[in-house]
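Long-time lurker, first post. I've been practising inverse folding by hand and with some scripts of my own, and I keep getting stuck on stretches where the structure tokens seem ambiguous. Below is the full token string for one chain I'm working on. Before anyone asks, I'm not after the true native sequence, just a reasonable design that respects the backbone. If someone could post their per-position residues I'd love to compare against what I wrote down in my notebook.
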């Protein structure tokens, strides 16, 4: 898919994949708080599940991350990172867990935006069409406080 737009009563999630998908998974993830409860971003993580395609080393790049508040204010975030580790399940043997260290809470109507790339460290070609998270609209998993608020983990 080039775009996923989905959600529930807790969050609305929009994922736009960009680039040619040959040397990286890249795009923008937007998470909008739909609930009356605040979402503590420092207790939130985003997991992308993928196949390594016989590559040994991957890099996560955070090009831009910010909160666009419902009231119009904009806050750039500086402590967003991704850690790559082994995973198991359908269409994945690796995962990238994206964490937010900035102390910020999303109020109802606020949106967290992340522009990113995940790629082999040598920028060699990969096949993203066989990645669990790319193939499934709910394949990107978002947890807050350890609880899944969006997505389904691979089996």
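-- Answer (accepted) --
I ran through it position by position. Result:
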């Amino acid at each position: 898919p080039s775009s996923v737009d989905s959600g529930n009563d807790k969050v609305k999630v929009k994922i736009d994949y960009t680039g040619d998908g040959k040397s990286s998974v890249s795009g923008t993830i937007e998470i909008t708080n739909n609930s009356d409860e605040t979402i503590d971003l420092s207790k939130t993580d985003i997991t992308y599940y993928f196949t390594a395609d016989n590559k040994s080393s991957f890099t996560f790049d955070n090009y831009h991350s910010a909160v666009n508040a419902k009231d119009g204010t904009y806050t750039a975030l500086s402590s967003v990172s991704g850690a790559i580790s082994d995973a198991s399940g359908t269409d994945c043997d690796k995962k990238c867990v994206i964490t937010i260290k900035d102390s910020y809470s999303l109020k109802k109507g606020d949106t967290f935006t992340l522009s990113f790339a995940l790629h082999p460290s040598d920028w060699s070609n990969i096949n993203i069409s066989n990645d669990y998270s790319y193939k499934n609209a709910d394949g990107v998993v978002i947890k807050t406080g350890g609880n899944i608020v969006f997505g389904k983990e691979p089996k």
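A couple of notes from the structure itself: The CA atoms of residues 40 and 123 lie 34 Å apart. The helical segments are 132-135. Happy to go over any region you disagree with.
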